[in-house]
Structure formats: C-alpha cells, structure tokens
Design brief:
- It is built from one helix and nine strands, in the order αβββββββββ.
- The termini are far apart.
- The chain is mainly beta and 144 residues long.
- About 12% of the residues have low confidence.
- Strands 2, 4, 5, 6, 8 and 9 form a six-stranded mixed beta sheet that branches. Strands 1-3-7 form a three-stranded antiparallel beta sheet, with no helix packed on it.
- It has one domain: Sandwich (Immunoglobulin-like), CATH 2.60.40.
- This is ATPase.
Length: 144
C-alpha cells in the first residue's frame, strides 16, 4: 500500500515539475492540434495606437463558436501581455484575454508604443482549455 502511495506521489511530482506539460479541462484535443499566429511575425514592428491585423492559424482542429460542443473543435483566445492562465479553468475575459467565441479566425487590435507579447490559446465550448491544451508560441511585437 505504501509503495503505491509513493509511486503516485512521484508521478504527481514529475507531472508538476515537467516544464511545458500542462493538464487541461475535460474536453480532449485532437492529436497533433497546433495553433499559431500567422501575422504579425515574431519581432515585427506594428503601428502604435493604430489598428493592425492579427491572423490566427490552426491545424488538425476545427473552429466552433462558444456553446457549440462538437468533437475536435474549439475557439480562439488571444492573450496580450500575459502568461497562460490555469489550464483547468475558464479562460478569463479581460483586456489581456480576448475571446473569439463567434469562431473568428482574425481580428484587429491596437497597442500603445512599446514591446508587447501575443499568444493564442484554444478553448472548448465553455472557454476551458482542451486536454492537452492547444496554445501557440508566445511572440513579441514592437509598437512604434
């Protein structure tokens, strides 16, 4: 009995200590699903205080609006100047976590002058990340 408890504790510690490994919510993501920012590119200069386009890319997964529960689908969330939220909870909705629950695959945003980070995170029909979570590389843009 103590051996099983010790093994379970070691597995839990290994999961928690593994960088890049995150457990998501109850909705499974498709194998190989990949989300990315198609535009702008990492390190690109964008206009400050003026709208510019952000294009969302997605492979091996479909897009469905909030509230539509369909296998192997989700919708985009754009994270601006923030880290990934908890992967087993609803994605916040604020100026740093933009929701695209109508199934949008691009948007326009404007940023004040300076360095900013952008990252995409897919959410299920209830805005909860999939398991495993599907999120893009975090990119940096410079608003001038």
């Amino acid at each position: 009995m103590y051996r099983n408890i010790a093994i379970a504790a070691l597995v839990t510690l290994a999961v928690l200590a593994s960088p890049g490994l995150a457990l998501g919510g109850p909705t499974p993501s498709p194998a190989g699903a990949h989300v990315y920012i198609g535009y702008p590119n990492d390190g690109q200069v964008v206009p400050a205080n003026k709208p510019f386009r952000v294009w969302f890319g997605l492979r091996y997964m479909g897009v469905a609006p909030k509230g539509v529960k369909f296998p192997k689908t989700g919708h985009h969330h754009l994270l601006i100047d923030t880290d990934l939220p908890p992967m087993d909870q609803e994605i916040p909705s604020d100026r740093n976590h933009l929701h695209f629950g109508a199934g949008e695959t691009e948007t326009t945003i404007q940023l004040p002058p300076g360095k900013h980070t952008l990252q995409l995170l897919m959410g299920d029909d209830m805005h909860i990340p999939h398991d495993p979570p599907v999120y893009s590389k975090k990119i940096t843009v410079i608003a001038r």
